[in-house]
Design brief:
Layout: E1 4-5, E2 8-9, H1 16-22, H2 32-45, E3 49-50, E4 84-89, H3 94-103, H4 105-111, E5 115-117, E6 126-129, E7 139-141
Parallel strand pairs: 5-7
Antiparallel strand pairs: 1-2, 3-4, 4-6, 5-6
């Protein structure tokens, strides 16, 4: 198991408690599709992509995988399956990122993106996930 996958460290996708227990094997909890989608955003915007930043003394810890013990989010959240991220692109408004994704949705869907959260529920971040929807379009959810 590599320490870095598609330009990301495991700490960017898992909370401290998981990394402390599993180290580099924390990747076991993350669906590779969500990592590839975030890597594509990093490439497209040529900016830092922030998911979790606890390892650099930031406040974001549960924006990728959320273990069963987490009280954040719904109990059936895609975060609990390692198939979701709440992503911030440094210096870019979340609505601009959502618009970009929708303008290039075929490419993002090929990477596995199936779902975005509506801007009313994710005003400063972009919730991305790769759940099975059976649709030929990106599903916009309002949890």
């Amino acid at each position: 198991m590599e320490a870095i996958q598609h330009g990301f460290f495991a700490t960017e996708f898992v909370p401290k408690e998981i990394f402390d227990r599993y180290g580099v094997n924390s990747w076991w909890f993350i669906d590779e599709r969500i990592v590839r989608i975030n890597a594509e955003l990093k490439k497209d915007f040529n900016r830092a992509v922030i998911i979790n930043n606890w390892s650099v003394k930031g406040t974001r810890q549960y924006c990728g995988y959320r273990p069963p013990t987490s009280i954040i989010g719904g109990k059936n959240s895609q975060h609990r399956h390692g198939r979701a991220s709440d992503t911030i692109i440094s210096g870019i408004h979340a609505n601009e990122v959502r618009e970009w994704i929708m303008q290039h949705k075929e490419r993002y869907m090929q990477l596995g993106l199936t779902t975005l959260e509506h801007q009313d529920f994710a005003p400063t971040w972009v919730h991305l996930d790769c759940r099975w929807t059976g649709l030929n379009d990106i599903l916009i959810v309002k949890p």
